Amino acid sequence: MIPLPAIVRRFAFPRGRLAIVPLGRGLINDSWLVTASRKRGVLQRINRHVFPEPDRIMANIATVARHLAARPDRRLRLPTLIAARAGGNFVRAGGEFWRLWHYLPAVTLERVDHPDLAFRLGWSLGHLHRLLAEIDPADLYDTLPGFHVTPTYLDAFDQALAARQDAFSPALERACDFVQRRRERAAVLERANLPLRVIHGDPKLDNVLFDPESLRPLAWVDLDTLKPGLWLWDIGDCVRSACGAEGSLDLSLTAALLDGWLAEAGRWLTEAEIGLLPEAIWLLPFELGLRFLTDHLQGDRYFKVGFRGENLRRALAQFALTEDIERQWGDLLGLRPFRRGRRYSST
Ligand code: GN1
Ligand code: MG
Fold it and tell me: Do residue 122 and residue 55 come from a single domain?
């Protein structure tokens, strides 16, 4: 492999001594924090197995960046790229695809512990959606066909099940059974014919940078899945990651996050989208569990693992959250944002 400093030198980044340390908890790409004397950057190697056409990702990011640059907004930033010395904003080296971001001085949070923070997070996602709504989804490539289309994950699960020959452990039996009993419900968003919009695609808590003092969301990172899709995927994933710690959904955080999101994005939503919001909150943890489980059955080819069995463990954690949402279903439907929801819708 080409040494990392040699890669960094191919970008317009200060020459001289570099410190390079691994960064982040991403399960797909690899990231490093790169520090020169007075400048920091984030180097990334894109996972070519997951993203076979990285140029298209970069084109989508450029389209969105161009749009946002034309209407600067103090309340939202997206990270920007450092140019490659040979031109463009990425480098191909050693058969790999590399890019270098300007570092944003901000922090990520491990958990949301107050409804005010949940409101600000939801508001920030709604604000991002509002800005993305000005871009025609047809102007972006679909860089990951089938992403978040739960029935396609069910098909992959079925194939993996059919191909497997080893005996199943009780935990694996339980996980597969959990999926089988919920197959019908998994197609709920696809059946609804919802409007295609520009999405972030991975708006989990980890992907928001906060101001370390005020704890206001400053920027959304991880822009690889900016592409056409459903906003309900985004809000479902945001709720899953921010309000669903330790296998249980915190309803007061959920209500606050949705209030924030609806305050910004509500005007753009159709009645069908608002009506299906609770289903999206159920679906995203189920879907992520299904994706982890299928990857476990396929021998851990998609998500990085530290040990065999980690994807199964991740799947069970997502299914525990899914089950908790089912247990609290009546209370969830009674939440303030759902009761008032119709007021927001545009149609
Ligand atoms: C993957 O690599 P990371 O952590 O940013 C995945 C998301 C999952 C997430 C779960 C392109 O994102 O969909 O929600 O893992 N991204 C892709 O941690 O599959
Ligand atoms: Mg991601």
Answer: no
